[in-house]
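Whether sequence alone determines local backbone shape is best considered at the level of individual chains. Part of our work consisted of pairing the sequence of a single chain with a tokenised description of its backbone. This step matters because it turns folding into a mapping between discrete strings. For completeness, the protein is quoted in full, as a sequence line and a line of structure tokens:

_____
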Amino acid sequence: MSAVHFIVPAGIDDPARPSGGNAYDRRIADGLAATGWTVDIREVPGSWPSPDQQSLGALAAALRGIPDGALVLLDGLVASPAPEALTPEAERLRLVVLVHMPLGHAREGAVLRAASSVVTTSAWARRTLLELYSLPGDRVHVAEPGVEPAELAPGTETAGALLSVAAVIPGKGHDVLLDALVPLTGLRWQCECVGSLERDPAFVERLRRRVLDGGLDDRVRFPGPQAESELARSYAAADVLVLPSRAETYGMVIAEALARGLPVVAAEVGGVPETLGHGADGTRPGLLVPPGDPEALRGALRAWLEDAGLRRRLRAAARERRASLADWSTTTSAVAEAIQGAVG
């Protein structure tokens, strides 16, 4: 079988709503098509991952329009919270669920047990799903995100160009970042926080007030989301990526930073340690801190800004790690193998 119906949240290509999940889905759809698969993308509108009845109805309608015996790949953002729409279809369709972030509730468990196969984006996510739902190990696969080759970022004289790339929502920890930065105003740095400002406007407003109250208005910028070419320029101008997330399955922006030889300061959550990896001599190309801990993050950033020897070691490790990053063709092959196995 070389045809797959791919069900994704509406807005997969909306430049105003960039996300790692959307980027992954688009890469997989294009990669499968390029290798001979017929890919039917079906966007489902709704309040995912907290669907209302209208959202569930839209998903059910999309599934009803797919012929018996067909292979269906579903983004977990849509599939995991919707067992009432998915489980009745499991007898007539070959369902494969692509889990970007485990939700950790019984509804997701019901969906994944009904699926023919499950694809995750990190080894951490696979372990988590197996522990949560006692799924058969041979039905849960890993297809880590790939990364495009990129030019090395040259770095700045002060090493103080901090870059954060994430939607501005509580889960990404921008509040932790600001609390860490306020006491560091005696050091030379600038911080650019690239990402959507529309998903939680109240949170964004609280951050803006924090910036003003902390005297950071000439140090911290929130330019909103950036197109691919503009984001590439932001990476090229940076010295270090900062990702203080409260949860991450993989952390695609970490791989994007490492592809440019940029070290990373990040919260040690989920799949972040495996994404960060190590240089050839075992040195991590960055610093990991506990999530939700401004003091620990402040200490890591201070160490980066003040210790030239540390910066040299981390940059060398980042450039070594750069060589071992997977490309998107490897990711596509892993997904193709998993969904083809669901047919058998």
Remarks:
- DSSP finds 14 helices and twelve strands in the chain.
- The CA atoms of residues 67 and 264 lie 46 Å apart.
- The longest strand covers residues 3-9.
- Residues 328-343 form the longest helix (16 residues).
